[in-house]
Task: structure prediction
Amino acid sequence: MIVRARKVTAAALTSFLLAVAPAVGVAAVVPAQLPMAAAQPDASVGDIESTSAVPDTPMTQAGNPFLTLSIDTVAPSTVTTSSDPFVTVRATVTNTGDRRVDDVSVRMQASSAIDTTAGLRTSLTLDQERFDRVGDFVTVAESLEKDESRQFDLSMQLRSTTEPSLGIEAPGVYPLLLNVNGTPEYGGTARLDDARFLLPVVGLPRNPGEMDPAAPDAAPLPPNTRNPVAMTVLWPLADIPRLAAGIPGSVDERVRLIDDELAGELASGGRLDTLLKAVEFATKPGLDPGGNLASSLCIGIDPDLLVTVSNMTRGYLVVDNPADPASTARDGTGSAAATEWLSRLETIASSTCVTAMPFAQTDLGAVADIGDASLIQSAISTPADVVDGILGITSTRGFTWSTTGGVDADTADALRSAGTGTVLVADNSISPPTSAPMAQLISTNVPPTGTQPSESQPPSTLAAAHYDAATAAALAGVGDTPSTPALTPAEQRFDLDTDSRTARLQDALGAVNFHALVGTDRPGRTVTVAPPQYWTAGGDEPSAILSTVSSLLRSGLATPRPLAELIAEPTSGTPVSSVDAATELDTGTIDLVRTQSARIETLMQSLVEDPQSALTPRLFTAPLREDMLRALSTAGRASSVADETGTMAFTRLAATRIGIDTIYGSVTVLAPGGVYTLASEQSPLLLVARNDLPMPVNVLLRVDAPPEMTISDVGVTQLPARGSRTITVPAEVDATRNLSVDFSVTALDGSRLGEVSTVSVRSNAYGQALAIITACAGALLLLLAGRRLWHRFRGQPDPADEGYERP
Result:
């Protein structure tokens, strides 16, 4: 991100002089008091924009501002015909510098109404001189010592002909600014900070400055409701992945989480609680009697969150070391909160539109690059089944909400292959720009025109619906961890940390109102409002945003457009393409996921379903495949916690690899110990294979024997769950010596399982010598037997019987 870049003015020189003043003493060439005008941008500088991120307010030698201004409250947050005719801002000014600041004074300024969606962002980076409707400076503190703060209220008329006002003459969205001046010790008066926010005006109250109450300008001015905007609102329920990695599925074991933060998010007052409570409250029959808000709203649910919460209801553990799947763990504390929250969600979902997000908000572009069909299905198709199975509903099918705001051609093909017919993307990702609610999305593999999809075939085309990117960026700034969407243009980016939480909420309210107030002369106006999927809005913020939407619907400035109605829109206009943000995942991560995903698929193909067990091969391997998607999650990637989430992803991949290695090592050949002696050259070998997995597995025997030994293939062997089996291995040896033979078991595709066992074999085979001796012995036996018969036939005693005659 960059800080707000403004024109370099005389204040920049003041910054330099203030920085060096302590070093040169009070005799430095610094005017004791600069004229007040010097605190404002100097028009003589011209219109050259600063090419660097140099702020036009002076800084201390340590690079800190002398004063920091923060907006606490804005009343009214949205101006209506029944509001007071003035705006009151409560703010706090803090001395964050290294010296005392005297004569701290503040004034309010306003700029012209915003007329483009891009202006919702760029208006917050305008030069101060563009806020040309100015009030009077009001002293809020005679002096502020270092680290001292002062809260104050400042009011200004909306419109007036007799005194300074904000000059607001019509409904719209207006950028406002608080400008604070002060005189740091050793320096002169300068503008030391400002705070900016948007003020939505949906109607003007009476003008108290008009002397004639009957004059047209004195009466309230309502908004134009003749051409309302059709509005669809996506409401996300998602979290950063919390399940510990590397642990396969089971029937009765408790799940493990990497931390217990989700318990707080689900509890009363937590982020997920307030997001759900805002929907529950705003859609009550008393507040939404016509069901307009409920019709325009669709809840987007991350199936990974549902899987986690559902498992938490049955009790869970929190691991001490997320990098080690088998590490020690403690009991989690959020089972009761999870049970209550899930029950409330089931209730609201039964009567509200619900759509499933991609699993764990995974990076669809990265999944498409990996090219694993099972992984693609788990990311795009399976989520709807998960949501429906847990909540007992039928969610919106064939619709995918892009996690990054765009899809490239390869991702579009992956979406089509997974059964997606409509993808929701940011409007700034589409080329050429289109106002059509639904446009055909170009992909690299479009079937012939006229092809009709069937239930067993993917859609023949992919349609693109779009949400307003500037509004999404404003909503992303709401909450305790503000973020900037990846596709936000550079000119619309600024450091969100410089704004207070209240100011960021005001910007979001202005963005939501903007589409109802601007462009009322355009036919067929539509807008889709979509916050980031991982949204950190909390406290009163979700309710304030839904209340704004509800007010627009009640006043006639907007009409509900259900998501199902949007999806049913036919594609129109020129086919478009969509760009995606460059993935922040390195090649090594992508390759590791590809490798481990292939190993999971190999394992699943070798496992055998046991009719007596509820655990199936798919259920056993599903958490491992989901770990791959969690490692590719976009949650938190565009915010200040990006480094933390990146570390979590790396740890998850490492733990998953350990877990898969452990599973592979659970099936092995047991070393017999000692020397295996063969009774003959064709005696079989008896080996014992052990399976420590909770379900049967089919294996192949791999043998690495010397040339003197021939081993016959024993084919596929099924090992029982948590049991062992003796394998009889036919062998033939043509040498008499000690032999060393390596045995191991493999999956059905030849991937090795477990460790290699080396068997020492002692063979009693004598080869040709044994055959000759045996033949000679046989010939001698025949000769002696023939001699005896010869003598008997001639009636002669056999000389060999001499001395043994009978008496």
Summary: The first helix runs from residue 10 to 24. Residues 600 and 621 are 7 Å apart (CA to CA). The first strand starts at residue 67 and ends at 75. Confidence is low (pLDDT under 50) at residues 1-55, 446-456.
